[in-house]
Specification:
The chain is α/β, with parallel strands linked by helices. Helices cover about 45% and strands about 15% of the residues. Helix 11 packs antiparallel against helix 12 and helix 12 (about 285-310) crosses helix 13 (about 340-350).
């Protein structure tokens, strides 16, 4: 099938590439000419495992192309995806200006029937707005062309997005049109061979499903982080508690890992946007408000443990801190809403210097922070320890999981480790003579 995708950000690029991988003819449209030129040369602007070689192979095969010409994109696509950003507005609601701009462009150029797909994460009711904008542009042209607007939310995990797209656990399609549903089923047939993955529903239910899914996952994370606070105060180990509750199939193991708070492009803005949508309809979201509040507080907790260790904020002045991890999660270079950013701000406000390393996010950190005297971006985790007083681990990259604790003892002036993801066994760290602070591990807090 001929597919047009507006937007070559995270969702648009992964979706377009995977659709090309299964044989569809995909043309991706973006307003950023430099990005488009780079993509046509095989330069992928984001890090996602497996994505770059797939983009290059499908581009070479002629199934995946990139352009800034909106008219050519609309002319190409029998299915037209809207996959542009929906950043949070000042009040926390999703900003739809890019989505509606694409809808207007579609209406200006559409010359035959098509299925328009909302792939961007959008509030309930957006499909109606997209449909109205397209219809208004068609009316202005005096054009009578039929089209359907479908909600098809994405459920991609950064770091595993290619796998999620090629082997989805569900494909949610929101439409009241039997013809549009049939078109979407044909489009996704290559992903749906082993068993039925398509979950068909009305448009508004599909729009709400995306927000509900992310809000549920964020809730599990904040719940465990709140339990971790209790564990610290009563002298329990939240990691043992996690094992005790995760074995219950009603709870499960997913997203019950305590840590330094969630970040990224989805959970923070989606929880806020869902709460804002509810408020606009007179529903007060006490639970969602608490989820966000707990997460916000959790991002500062690791620094609070550092203050507890040193006795005061002023005692941290002049310290050099090694920081392992900058991305909000492993297998991505994304630092949006990352816990590392809160930690960096706290350390700098306290007068500390930072030596940081991340396997993929160094370039992003340079873009965000530029050159500054209190930040050294290192080329290895070992290099961060040079002259460091303490170590903070904030992203659970695999290469951080088995350090030489004896070497850490010798390298760190203050011999203290703050583990923001509970990667290590406290006894192993302390046996090497390094003070250990984890999340919700009352044993180490009492020792401190």
């Amino acid at each position: 099938m001929r597919v047009c995708i507006f937007g070559t950000g995270y969702v648009g690029l992964v979706t377009g590439t995977c659709l090309a991988e299964v044989g569809h003819d995909v043309l991706c449209i973006d307003v950023d000419a430099a990005k488009v030129e780079g993509l046509n040369r095989g330069v992928v602007p984001i890090f996602e495992p497996g994505l770059t070689p797939m983009v290059q192979a499908n581009h070479a095969a002629g199934r995946l192309r990139f352009s800034v010409d909106a008219a050519s994109g609309v002319a190409h696509g029998e299915v037209i995806f809207i996959a542009v950003g929906t950043p949070p507005d000042e009040d926390g609601s999703a900003d739809l200006k890019y989505v509606l701009a694409v809808a207007a462009s579609i209406g200006m150029h559409l010359d035959r029937p098509a299925v328009v797909v909302d792939k961007s994460t959008v509030p309930v009711g957006t499909a109606d707005k997209v449909s109205a904008r397209i219809a208004a542009e068609l009316a202005a042209r005096g054009a009578d062309i039929s089209f359907d607007v479908v909600s098809n939310p994405e459920f991609l995990k950064e770091g595993a997005a290619v796998e999620d797209c090629l082997r989805p656990d569900r494909i949610v399609i929101g439409t009241d049109s039997a013809a549009a549903l049939d078109t979407m089923k044909r489009l996704y047939a290559p992903f749906n061979r082993n068993h039925e993955r398509i979950v068909a529903m009305d448009v508004r239910s599909a729009e709400l499903t995306k927000y509900a899914a992310n809000a549920m996952l964020a809730t599990k994370i904040s719940f465990m982080n709140e339990i971790s606070r209790i564990a610290e105060e009563v002298g329990a180990d939240v990691e043992l508690v996690r094992k005790g509750i995760g074995s219950d199939p009603r709870i499960g193991w997913g997203f019950i890992y305590p840590g330094a708070g969630y970040g990224g492009s989805c959970f923070p803005k989606d929880v806020q946007a869902l709460a804002k949508t509810a408020l606009q309809h007179g529903v007060r979201t006490r639970l969602l408000d608490a989820v966000e509040a707990v997460n916000d507080a959790q991002k500062s907790h690791l620094f609070e443990l550092m203050v507890r260790h040193y006795g005061s904020v002023s005692a941290i002045r002049g310290k050099t801190v090694a920081l392992w991890g900058l991305a909000f999660k492993p297998d991505t270079d994304d630092m949006r809403e990352a816990s590392s950013r809160r930690m960096l701000d706290h350390l700098w406000d306290a007068g500390a210097k930072v030596r940081a390393f991340d396997p993929e996010a160094i370039g992003e950190a340079k873009r965000i922070y530029g050159e500054r005297a209190d930040l050294v971006l290192c080329d290895s985790s070992t290099a961060t320890l040079d002259g460091a007083d303490a170590l903070v681990v904030i992203t659970e990259w695999k290469q951080f999981r088995s350090p030489d604790f004896g070497a850490l003892k010798n390298a760190l002036t203050d011999a203290v480790l703050f583990d923001g993801r509970n990667l290590y066994r406290p006894a192993d760290v302390e046996a090497a003579g390094v003070a250990y602070y984890g999340i919700g591990r009352g044993r180490s807090v009492r020792k401190g």
